Amino acid sequence: MTTEGPLAGIRIIEVGVMLAGPYATMLLADLGAEVIKIEPPGGEISRQVSDSYFASLNRNKQSVMLDLQSDAGRRRLGELVADSHALLVNMKPSAIRRLGLTYESLRAHNERIVCVALTGFGLDGGDDPAFDYVIQAATGVAAMTGHPDGPPTLPGYSSADNSTGLTAALGLLAQIVSNRGGQVDVCLRDVMLSQLNYRASAYLNDGAAPQRYPFGAHSYYVPAQLFLTADGYLALFITHDGFWRTFSAEAGIEGFPTMAERAANRDEVLALVAAALAGDTALNWEARLSPLGIPVAAVRTLPEALEATPEVVVTAGEHRLVGSPIRIDGYQPEYRPAPGIDEHGAVEVHSPQSS
């Protein structure tokens, strides 16, 4: 078992707030990067949400309190930049520029610094508020989610923030690997539109706008949706004819052997499947179908899912958290608690890494 993570020796400065930016740098810290979280006097705003909220996004980091609007704060930031590989910031574009957190402003301290700006609509896209729910609404995610006859629906977690955090971490590492500094620009709007890949392609190339189906049914595959069982809901995802042969034999359904036939007779197929699945519970169907290789799962609550997968839960100080989703052979992250405000204010600056 190795003791150092794959990003050991990489120093990243974070000027992050709430979720997207801090999530990006936490993933990098879990992989061994040294992450210095710059906090304003009084601390980063997410500390006011709850201790567990802050802990879930800021473990394995150091905290340095700086007033970036002061000359002393900017000088200290320049010292840290000179000895770092990257800086990631998620703020409004005007604030990023006003505080001098772009590559053009910081290259004087370190030509090879990678500066990642994580914004709502791009570094040149203006300052309109860009919270997660707003982006989900603006990019079509809410409109394509929910029952056909119901209102638009938002996912039950911060999908835009988390997805953009992952993308920002990828962009940051890509530019570091290139061995040259520069500006990386990642925004919530573009990330969410990118994640609509085949939906967007269907519209751009075929003029097919997304439509909602009951129970979240897939637009191409049949049956692929949620079904009500004798007790609870079941997610069933039949993507090819082999799956259908196995499933239909177990469920006692005949006919519709090809994907094209099932798609052409969607309502009839779904009615047969729904009637069959109503004869047993979701958990029993999962137990019957999973050993046959059928993609299936009973719908669980988050508490039930966490209880079923205790191996993903780690301890960082006083908090139990979901650990890193990235598993690397020979490396086990050490989960340290989220830092107190300015806990590492005296962090050392060594000779510039770019020399």
Automatic annotation (TrEMBL):
Q: Which UniProt keywords apply?
A: Transferase
Read off the Pfam families from this record.
CoA_transf_3
Looking at the record, which segments are called Disordered? Answer: 333-355
Question: What does the record give under GO molecular function?
Answer: transferase activity
Presence of keyword Magnesium: no
Q: Does the keyword Transferase apply?
A: yes
What PANTHER family has UniProt attached to this entry? SUCCINATE--HYDROXYMETHYLGLUTARATE COA-TRANSFERASE
What is the protein name stated in its UniProt record?
A: CoA transferase
Q: Which organism is it from?
A: Mycobacterium deserti
